[in-house]
């Protein structure tokens, strides 16, 4: 054997590096960095959500209306006709003398609000800048809220991320059953919009004959009961307080019946508002409303201080638990909608792994056998490079924590077919030179030289296509482009540098009378 | 083993260039007609819609499923087909749902209740807006990679080489797309990936032939481009066939063993590998001839390009020193 040259040493290092760092992925051991399996291989739920930001704008106006009402009442200003529409809040000041006071309050407490005034009639709407901010906030808040909910739910490594300007990507690996999936979706979708609303006792007895429009004209809203769908309540549409003042929510159990219920606590401001309201409204009813359904509407017996409230209802323990999670994580400012959903059951994922692995092994074996049959030892050397290439590809993906998808597997299979290309080009050049009568060492050196530009240009063009695909592809397609790109880069090292080194190392052993064995050249006809 | 020997007599490819060109033109026309008349069968990734994959214990009661679905208004026009085996079916429908907590799979489970013991194994749903976005992105990817490659080859060779390789490329992609129209395979994201791979693969092949022609222009004495091309193509024939064979093998195994999910993808690649190999031998080079490529001019330019050559030498030297 010849002396060790730098090429073969680098190649050996690359090979060892590849084997060592691909072991954690191949054995699926717990230690070391591993390749993550994509949702299409391990099973899971992938959703692309959009946010109905217009609802966020409406509820922003609503909360402006709520605090306006509270402040005006607090300042003893007499007003009437406070209405909240989808694009504005309007009210009438009854005492003209109080207009300067109202203006002062508006300027101080409601920044970023456009106020239009006609005599004693006021209209408040959102400025463009504020509307944009509200929309952006709604999306960011939805991302945070959904992430918190999924984390609290206790699933392994869910991904929740903003995609583009206004979309949310949700990926939940390892969802076992359809029931689990539905529960996760329900949890994501839950607006968890909690409101304490006063019952309009003056008109409450007319609720069953009243239309929603009529209720609206009184500043009321009709909401159904959560369990008895026929039961309705007439409530003041402006809530006493909402879930933003909630600090905690926990599942508890009723002492007598042992039915699950939800206890929640209010923050300081919430407790005060709640205490004040209950003090004023003894004898009236107050409804606990979650997502526009009335859960309970008890009579207020006395002032309730301390900010502790309970929701009862016909919950299963599971439901109570999910509602508590949703309440704790805060409400969604705006509802989310599904734009894209891909759900892969664990058995389908396992099938995908099996099928693509079989294809990989069969393709790999075919190529290896073919190379040995056609090129003899030169084929064996190419195969060593090919094996190194595969390990290197796995190692790089493991270290980068890359995700392997089904198209990614296809990319690896394809790499096997295309990575030998460099060696085919080189071997053909060497054969050509040997036929022309070059010595073995000259044929090898010259062959590598001649082949280099072709391999370089060809790989760069393929790489350009792969990189563009990576930049513009989504999800699984990115995986395909990634494995292709890494495969091409790794093949430059193994197939060009690596095999070159091996030839130089073996050179003294190569018998020029046995070119059939070494290079697969048919001697009887070929050797001149 | 040797299929094409290095001292193999030169094959007169360019003599028959016109006949081959006519054949290619015919294939392209046929593809365009197919695409125009039958059209591509856009799958849900691009057209929007839902696919629900259901596996039954035992044989799937496909007729019963069809009957059940026909009674539900939203799923009129839904198609039900076996998927991979006779215990598994795929239900395809144009309808999508926006609601997060109750979607097509939930509705489907209710509709199919009582048709047998089944499991919903997978659901893919793409809303129409997302489909449009994916289509635009796909087209962008295609155009951008063609431009990128065009620039690179112009830089490394000459504009006529670049143009010829891109024409060969369009030839390949058109015929592969024609095959998709003919077979009415669902065109989804993986198919786009396959088309882009064909793009890279076809160029890869063409570039290697062109590299040999570029070398031939310098080393072969004849100034007749046809002769130079014939000799260069003959000399690369062995490599072209071999690499195509190994790639063909692996894509074929992917097609046969890779499972239903990769069928369309690997089929497109199979067509692409065959067409790409054909075009790099028979299409790209004659176009170079028809573009009035002149050897004398190229040689004159070569002298001017000596600077660039030096760069290449440097690259080679870098490789020699092992810094690459």
List the helices and strands and how they pair.
The complex is a heterodimer of chains A (528) and B (324).
Chain A lengths: L5 H22 L8 E2 L1 H4 L1 E8 L1 H22 L4 E6 L4 E5 L5 H11 L3 E6 L2 E6 L1 H26 L5 E5 L3 E7 L4 H12 L4 E5 L13 H6 L2 E5 L7 E5 L4 E2 L3 E8 L6 E7 L1 H13 L5 E5 L2 E4 L11 E4 L5 H12 L7 E9 L1 H30 L1 H23 L3 E2 L1 H30 L4 H33 L2 H32 L8 H5 L3 H4 L2
Parallel strand pairs in A: 1-19
Antiparallel strand pairs in A: 2-8, 2-18, 3-4, 4-6, 5-6, 7-8, 9-12, 9-15, 10-11, 13-14, 14-17, 15-16
Chain B lengths: L16 H21 L6 H4 L1 E8 L5 H9 L8 E5 L1 E9 L10 H9 L5 E9 L1 H29 L2 H25 L5 H31 L5 H33 L5 H20 L1 H7 L4 H10 L1 H16 L3
Antiparallel strand pairs in B: 1-3, 1-4, 2-3
Count of β-strands of chain A: 19
The CATH topology of the largest domain in chain A is: Multidrug efflux transporter AcrB transmembrane fold
Biggest interface, chains and residue tallies = A-B, 95 and 86 residues
Uncertain parts of chain A: none
SSE pattern of chain B, N- to C-terminal: HHEHEEHEHHHHHHHH
Determine Rg of chain B (CA atoms, Å): 25 Å
Oligomer: heterodimer
How widely separated are the two ends of chain A? 27 Å
Mean pLDDT of chain A: 85
Tell me the CATH superfamily of the largest domain in chain A. Answer: Multidrug efflux transporter AcrB transmembrane domain
- CATH architecture annotation name of the largest domain in chain A: Up-down Bundle
Q: Overall pLDDT of chain B, averaged?
A: 85
